[in-house]
Amino acid sequence: MSRKQFPFLAAVAALAALVVATPPARATVMVELALEDMVRDADAIVRGVVERSAVRMDLSSGELAPWTITRIRPSAWLKTTSRAPVAPVVEVEELGGVWNGGGRWIDGTPRYRINEEVVVILKRDDAGHLRTLGFVQGKFVVRRGVPGMPTTVARDLSSVSFARWADGQMTVGHVEGERAMEFEAFAGLVRRMAAFAGVAP
Question: How far are the Cα atoms of 61, 116, 150 from residue 142, in angstroms, in the given order?
């Protein structure tokens, strides 16, 4: 079965082509997505622990292509829809992978590590596979606080740069660091956004 990428992948490729002549920036260039828009467009938002992540070779468009398949064991669902109902495990599929010291990888694709606790914003593609919405923008790592300190979530955006427009001009900027957010505040915000969009968690 052929796989179709998210529509914004074409926009990402176009933006990358625009900046290819600039001095070496290794990050993928993409449009920054507002959290509110991501919550609205998501088919599921899940907190859970990564149990497994492995590469599988699939025949796509007449050639073998690597896909990284990640299995997450949910502990909480912040949003669910008919396209991604509550389930005991969630499989996230991303184009690209590394195996035997080689492979093909797209900068900006989230990497999932075994036993990592995450909150992921997921969208089902046209082929029916769950993908991380907005590449690394849709993956938050959960950091459990020591006694007396709150649990937080934060994203790693070091592999991407964002294209922004102001006064008719496009600029490309790198995110130096994103402040961590207390998990309970983040979860409450996501649930309110989902409810406002008319989707109950």
Answer: 36, 8, 11
Q: Tell me the C-alpha distance between 89 and 51, whole Å.
A: 9
- Which token pair is 108? 């900006």
Distance between alpha carbon 187 and the CA centroid of its chain, in Å?
A: 17
CB atoms within 10 A of CB 161: 24
Euclidean distance between CA atoms 183 and 93, whole angstroms:
25
Residue 34 DSSP code? P
pLDDT, tens digit, 9 for 90 and up, residues 50-99: 999 999 988 866 788 899 999 999 999 999 999 999 999 999 999 999 87
- Burial classification of residue 47, based on how many CB atoms lie within 10 Å of its CB (0-12 exposed, 13-18 middle, 19 or more buried): buried
State the pLDDT at residue 171. Answer: 86
Q: Is 100 helix (H, G, I), strand (E, B) or coil?
A: coil
Tell if the pTM clears 0.85, that is, is over it. Answer: no
Closest of 163, 161, 167, 119 to residue 144, by C-alpha: 119
